[in-house]
Design goal:
Layout (H helix, E strand, L loop, with lengths): L1 H6 L2 E7 L6 H11 L8 H6 L6 H11 L6 H17 L2 E8 L1 H5 L5 H19 L2 E9 L4 H10 L9 E5 L11 H9 L3 E6 L5 H9 L5 E4 L7 H9 L3 E4 L1 H6 L11 H6 L3 E4 L4 H4 L3 H12 L3 H14 L4 H7 L1
Parallel strand pairs: 1-2, 2-3, 3-4, 4-5, 5-6, 6-7, 7-8
Bound molecules: 6-chloro-9H-purine and zinc ion (ZN).
Length: about 325
């Protein structure tokens, strides 16, 4: 089964590129850039990754990315991840990027986008790995800041596939970002949003109605609202579920308790994803394998899930045909 899941061409639709920063590279970049980390070793970094909710993770996630300073750092970050992903049988990656977190510490948008852009072109050439880019807005920051970011990103609109909404969910409902998502739509960008990870089913509904999203990131709390489930099924709305993330952030206690099987039984369109692989204990293959152990799913189930991701990906029809 491991060989089968590894060889299965997999698309990663829910990944934060800053969440691929492994402790080894974090130490290397801290040295390179003279950044002081509150850890003395790779082991000490890993030991700190004991989260009790989304916020306790986000605190370390924002601290970890402080080592990223130059375009080369961002290129190294993404290339390191692309190589690991390729080794796991990942053929396409859609990455969220959080520019506001970098702008806030004096790293320019050009630094971020040029570094990541170089890595994306190299990955396509050197690894036959295609990618998409999702400009994410931090929902715990003001909506005006998100609007400003989208306008400042004008030189990069062509390289973007979508806008997204991430960071601390509770208390920051999707409707706060109605205007910026409307602007993104006018620019021809697709829209996705984290909703129903820690937040209530109402946030999922709001993401659909107010932000006009084509995918819901996480969405695991939708089962609390049968009417919403019916609608998500009717619209064949894609949910990018992140099993290991949900365990690490205590959305569920154990993977065996995860609503994934119930979500599939309800007829929802599910994809499996890794979210922040460096922080949550594994990449896309590890997430597939964990589901195999927890739920005993057959090859057919994984073929279906991997197919959903290829179908929902922001990729050319030629590439989709190649991967199907
Ligand atoms: C995130 Cl797991 C998760 N949820 C919301 N925002 C995020 N940013 C990075 N990882
Ligand atoms: Zn996420």
């Amino acid at each position: 089964m491991r060989d089968f899941l590894k060889a299965l061409p997999k698309a990663e639709l829910h990944l934060h590129i800053e969440g691929t920063l492994e402790p080894e590279l974090m130490m290397t970049l801290a040295d390179r850039n003279g950044v002081n980390l509150p850890y003395g070793s790779v082991e000490a970094i890993r030991a700190a990754y004991d989260f009790h909710d989304l916020q306790s993770f986000l605190d370390l996630y924002y601290q970890g990315m402080s080592v990223l300073r130059s375009a080369r750092d961002f290129e190294d970050l993404a290339m390191d991840y692309f190589r690991r992903a390729t080794a796991e049988g990942v053929v396409h990656v859609e990455m969220h990027v959080d520019p506001q977190a970098h702008l806030a510490r004096g790293v320019s948008l050009a630094t971020v986008m040029e570094g990541l852009g170089r890595a994306r072109r190299r990955a396509e050439r050197e690894l036959d790995l295609t990618s998409a880019m999702i400009l994410a807005f931090l929902r715990d920051r003001p909506a005006e800041e998100a609007l400003d970011l989208l306008e400042r990103a004008a030189p990069y609109w062509e390289s973007l596939d979508a806008v997204g909404l991430d960071s601390a969910e509770l208390g920051h409902p999707p409707a706060k970002f109605a205007e910026v998502f409307q602007r993104a739509k006018a620019l021809g960008l697709a829209r996705v949003a984290h909703a129903g990870e820690e937040g209530p089913p109402d946030y999922i509904l709001e993401a659909l109605d107010v932000l006009d999203v084509c995918r819901i990131d996480h969405g695991v709390r939708c089962l609390e609202d049968p009417t919403l489930v019916e609608r998500l099924c009717e619209e064949a709305m894609v949910l990018t579920v992140c099993p290991l993330s949900n365990v690490r952030l205590k959305v569920v206690e154990r993977l065996e308790d995860h609503p994934l099987p119930a979500m599939r039984d309800a007829g929802l369109t599910i994809t499996l994803n890794s979210d922040d692989p460096a922080y949550f204990g594994g990449g896309l293959l590890d997430n597939y394998l964990a589901c195999r152990w927890a739920f005993g799913w057959s090859r057919e189930v994984f073929l279906d899930l991997a197919g959903n991701a290829i179908d929902a990906a922001f990729m050319s029809e030629a590439r989709r045909a190649e991967l199907r």
